Amino acid sequence: MLPLYGKISVAVFIIIILFSVFLMLRFQQSKPIFSERVQWTLSPIMVVLLILSVVFVLIAKDQKHRSEIANYIKNKGAVVISIESSSKSLTPFKDLDKGKAHPKDDYYIVTYSLEDKLKMAWFKGDNSLYKGTPTTEKEKWIFDGP
Length: 146
Description:
By secondary structure, the protein is an alpha+beta fold. It contains two helices and four strands.
């Protein structure tokens, strides 16, 4: 589940898109709501808000994956040392077919300590834009060693 600011960013994105479509339709009918000067001021503001909402959604998605990783490792009785974003080619997921590990998914390298030993794990978070079946918990993780 996305953090609250991620959900708000998605809502802002949708509202701005709908408002933009409404304004464009009104403009095409030659019944503009705002003067031309206001439209020239409003357009860049809306573009900036759209970009900011997309950025906040991506940050929220990353935070969601990181908290999921940290909770899973803590539940194993380990301590998370670092969580780093990675590409598919740098993880063991590169050997899986595209049906199980999409190139656009989010991949993380996790370093953690368990019983005073440093260990590594690799995590695959589903890309929220992919509409396939969500990855099961077992398929999201590859652990280094037992």
